[in-house]
Amino acid sequence: MRKLFTAIGIVATMLFSVAPAMAAKTEVRLCTGSDGGPYATAGKLIANVAKGDPNIDVKVVVDTGGTWANIQKTALGDECDAMIGQPDGHVLLARQKPSAAKALKPFGDLHREYLHALCSKASGVDDIGDLESDPAGNGYTIALGEPGSGAWLIWQNFIAEDADYGKVPVTTDSDVIALASVASGTGATCMLQPAAIGNPLVRQADEQFGDGLVLAGVNDRDFDNAVDPQGKQLYTYSEIPSGSYKKSLQGWFSGKKTVTWLAKVYVNTDRFTDRKALSSFITAVARAKPAIVAEYGQ
Fold this sequence. Notes:
This protein is of the alpha/beta class. Helix content is 39%, strand content 22%. The protein has 10 helices and 10 strands. Strands 1, 2, 3, 4, 5, 6, 7, 8, 9 and 10 form a 10-stranded mixed beta sheet that branches. The termini are far apart.
């Protein structure tokens, strides 16, 4: 009997010693964006899908500062292991720090985003290309927000494809301050807002400042040459669907062509030493994608 109890004790000890190892999961810190925004919502959907996975525990990091800040935290820092962002950031990183860009890999396309170009109605600008040509010498300017903003990232890639954009004076106004100043003609000529359809700021422009604004096109074919670090075309051209901003900026029957892209999930592959964890995270992204696209479009 004593031998039986001894054997049972040994087996129990073995089970308890194995259990923690079996229960251990790899924590994946996912940098997103402002809480309640598309990136944070997408991150939470990914984390929710991953809850039943035995290999990973996804921790969503919100209010990070956006794509470029996410890159600082994921590729150049160690606060996050993965991130959601617009592909312009990866392109700029590849130009500035190629070695860091190599470790940052896109492992999933998410929802579609569009460049919303909002210009002063009084300026007569109806396409962003008017800013860099400015044949009449009107002194056009553009509001991009602070360096590192999504609009600022896109503008760096525009300059890389056509140096004339680098001559356009830039202001750091953003959000409703930029809206009001552009609409009233007291600030920049135009402002840029990269976002999914139905972005709250663009809706506010439509509903509250539409009398002084136009939704301008973005159709400079120099942008056709822009590619991502994998050599794929960075932008495509598509219409912001008519009726998206129906009060003032468009109406029901007016689309506006602009550059568009897919938000992506990026992984710092140097952080994923466990291949099972990486596979599980990629699977969670793929499983969450339909719900994300249903919410924000593709």
